[in-house]
Write a structure and sequence with these properties.
The protein has about 500 residues and is α/β, with parallel strands linked by helices. It contains 17 helices and 16 strands. Bound molecules: zinc ion (ZN).
């Protein structure tokens, strides 16, 4: 099984070869796939456009970790420090502004909305991240990186303003966004006329002399606070090293934030490329209008619940669009997603009533192992088609289409092993879909854990196969089937066979 993902760097789909398996990578040894994602500033509830980005990321994480079996190091930052309103280092500080409005300290505001973010992740069945790092807890790491840049003469100071990165000193600045630097420099006016180049950006801002900020820290340059981009570079380096596998974010980050993340990291650390694969998700279109994080009055998951939608209806809707396409959103489309999800659940319930009461729990197996346990050709072929769609740049609309088609054509197929069908769907539900497909079957479902012995043999068999030792692999297969007979001799199996 080979995953292809669209890399913003090359603007094409590329075979995913993690650094841990890449012969061209000569840095410190990797034992995990490193993934970093940008999180919005935590000054109010995330809207559904934000949540779409985390859903896309959830599909990616689950594919790598649960379906392909890669050990994943999964990092997400929380911007809990007040930056200025825009990527351009200008405007008001959102954290300080909203804290005043909500009559709380900036620290209380950050805690409140971090808790809110985590609650929303749970509502949408998005897995908890391994590492969630807060910008305010990594101030020293950010200062250290600015000092590295200073030592190499990449920085300059604008008095009463901040420490800036001189982008004219970087040979290939903007390669991710394929920026036309010359055009940009002569183009629109420079919003900060003290900057040497239009594309220069703040690494650290000085606290205004006459104003008391709630969030400010001492540094070699005096009191101040971090610039918009430095936290991601500093924290990704701390948790994932100087180079790592995948960086995700919204398409709005390509031209400024991610370009600057690359520039400051590569210049400070002297490594290239910083990230092997850059993946960007497209926006959600709310009633025909693009949603980005800085707009006001946006729809949240709580508002969907008030209108009697289940949060997982929204999860289903997100899966009907490819992550690189706009996701159209309005109530009619959400209603259609809700109906589709309900139909799927009802279909499962009916099949269960007609056929079986047992699900064998294969859920913790990656695909290469689970496919060995499925003997029904119909189910095996459908699952393979589903995996092919997923491996093609995470084509979830196609995954959903194949699941629906396969269930709709069950009547036309002469013989389908229903147990195989439930095993496959249960595995897909737990590892990828997470839409509570089996929810209404609830208590009737008995789950048999696979005996540890069988699990172990299956793993050995996979190893033998990978080593192309087919004789040994066949032997192990026979052994597994022998043991299956023991399992099949249970009361549950007898009950199943009666149906
Ligand atoms: Zn970032």
């Amino acid at each position: 099984m080979q995953l292809k993902i669209y890399n913003t760097l090359s603007r094409q789909k590329e075979l995913f070869v993690p650094l841990m398996e890449d012969p061209k990578y000569h840095g410190p040894k990797k034992t995990t796939v490193g993934l970093y994602s940008c999180w919005p500033t935590v000054y109010r509830d995330p809207h559904i456009g934000n949540m779409r980005a985390y859903l896309c990321r959830d599909i990616l994480c689950n594919t790598l970790e649960k379906i392909m079996g890669y050990p994943l190091r999964n990092v997400m930052n929380m911007t809990d420090v007040g930056h200025l309103t825009s990527d351009a280092d200008e405007g008001e500080d959102k954290m300080e502004k909203w804290a005043k409005r909500d009559n709380m300290t900036v620290w209380e505001l950050a805690d409140k909305y971090i808790a809110s973010f985590k609650r929303y992740l749970k509502l949408l069945n998005i897995d908890e991240y391994e590492i969630i790092c807060r910008a305010t807890e990594h101030i020293q790491e950010q200062i250290t990186m600015i000092q590295q840049l200073e030592k190499k003469w990449y920085t300059y100071i604008i008095p009463d303003d901040g420490v800036y990165m001189d982008t004219s000193k970087i040979k290939d600045y903007g390669y991710l966004a394929k920026l036309d630097i010359a055009g940009l420099q002569q183009g629109a006016r420079i919003e900060n006329e003290n900057k040497k180049n239009k594309t220069d950006f703040g690494l650290r801002k000085f606290s205004p002399v006459n104003e008391h900020r709630q969030m400010e820290w001492d540094s070699p340059w005096g009191k101040g606070f971090p610039g918009r981009h430095i936290e991601c570079s500093a924290m990704a380096t701390k948790y994932l090293g100087e180079q790592f596998d995948i960086h995700t974010g919204g398409v709005d980050h390509i031209s400024v934030h991610h370009v600057n993340e690359i520039a400051q990291s590569e210049c400070a650390l002297g490594t290239h490329p910083r990230v092997k694969y850059w993946m960007h998700n497209q926006f959600l279109n709310l009633w025909g209008k693009k949603q980005s994080k800085s707009e006001g009055g946006l729809v949240t998951v709580d508002e969907l619940i008030k209108k009697w939608f289940h949060p997982l209806d929204f999860r289903y809707l997100c899966m009907t669009a490819h992550y690189r396409s706009f996701l159209e959103f309005n109530e009619d489309l959400l209603q259609t997603a809700k109906n589709s999800r309900n139909n799927l659940i009802k279909k499962m319930q009916k099949l269960f009533d007609q056929h079986a009461k047992i699900i064998i729990d294969f859920d913790s197996m990656p695909y290469e192992q689970i496919k060995e346990t499925i003997t029904s050709k119909y189910v095996g072929d459908a699952l393979e088609d589903i995996m092919n769609a997923l491996m093609d740049d995470l084509n979830m609309p196609q995954v959903l289409a194949i699941i629906n088609q396969s269930l709709n054509s069950l009547d036309k197929v002469e013989e389908v092993d229903m147990n195989d069908l439930f095993v496959a769907l249960h595995w897909l539900e737990k590892n990828l879909l997470k839409i509570w497909l089996f929810d209404r079957i609830g208590q009737e479902v008995k789950e048999i854990k696979i005996p540890a012995k069988i699990q172990k043999l299956a793993e050995q068999r996979l190893e033998a196969k990978q080593a192309k030792d087919y004789a040994r692999s066949d032997e192990l297969r026979k052994e597994i089937l022998e043991l299956w007979r023991e399992v099949k001799d249970t009361k549950e199996w007898y009950e199943l066979m009666k149906m």
